[in-house]
Design goal:
- The protein is α/β, with parallel strands linked by helices.
- It is built from 4 helices and 6 strands; from the N terminus they run H-H-E-H-E-E-E-E-E-H.
- Strands 1, 2, 3, 4, 5 and 6 form a 6-stranded mixed beta sheet that branches.
- Helix 3 runs parallel beside helix 4.
- The longest helix is centred in the first third of the chain and has 29 residues.
- The chain is flat.
- The mean pLDDT is about 85.
């Protein structure tokens, strides 16, 4: 008797109703999976990095960079100007003007691979530094904050001139990335 009841269920449902139930089930499953995926991304801390708004207090600054790199200083000035920051000379600043001070940048290499001749063929270069925001009297308001970026450099076993030119181009990219990181971090300064 029970087996007959199971067979009787499809008889009461038309083919259209069965198709509608299947489509509704697929739609519900997709929505559930999409919601689960979105919650998983949020839970792991993932966020899109885009343009951040700097606090109004940082819209006029003096810049004191001891980074040791003209490329980084240029990239930082460009990133600041793209955010609408006005950089003043120290002589033009008043008592309310904040100073962005960048300390010396450091690089370190980690050997990743060697070729058959036992020459280093890949390294991972880390570029790191620290910065802080301070008042005219020298008191730090934000920081020191550490920033860093990493990049894998290949072709380290190439001819010396090719290696030098490649590494310089990659370092320029790293300086630009580090300047962007600093700008992103400044967007969260509690000023």
């Amino acid at each position: 008797m029970q087996l007959g009841w199971l067979i009787a269920i499809p008889i009461f449902l038309t083919r259209t109703e069965i198709m509608d139930m299947t489509v509704a089930f697929k739609h519900t499953t997709r929505l559930f999976l999409l919601a689960f995926f979105a919650m998983s991304l949020v839970a792991c801390g993932f966020h899109l990095v885009g343009s951040v708004q700097l606090p109004d207090r940082l819209k006029v600054l003096t810049l004191s960079s001891q980074s040791g790199s003209e490329d980084f200083d240029r990239a930082l000035r460009l990133a600041l100007s793209q955010q609408g920051v006005i950089i003043l000379e120290a002589s033009q600043a008043d008592a309310d003007t904040l100073e962005l001070k960048v300390n010396k940048l450091s690089t370190s290499d980690t050997e990743l691979a060697r070729n058959s001749s036992n020459d280093v063929s890949q390294v991972q270069r880390r570029l790191a530094g620290a910065y802080f925001i301070r008042q005219a009297d020298g008191k730090s308001l934000y920081g020191p904050r550490n920033i860093s970026t990493d990049k894998t450099l290949v072709n380290q076993d190439a001819e010396e001139s090719a290696k030098l030119s490649y590494n310089q181009a990659q370092m320029k990219d790293m300086y630009a990335d580090l300047a962007k990181q600093l700008m992103y971090d400044l967007g969260y300064a509690p000023l």
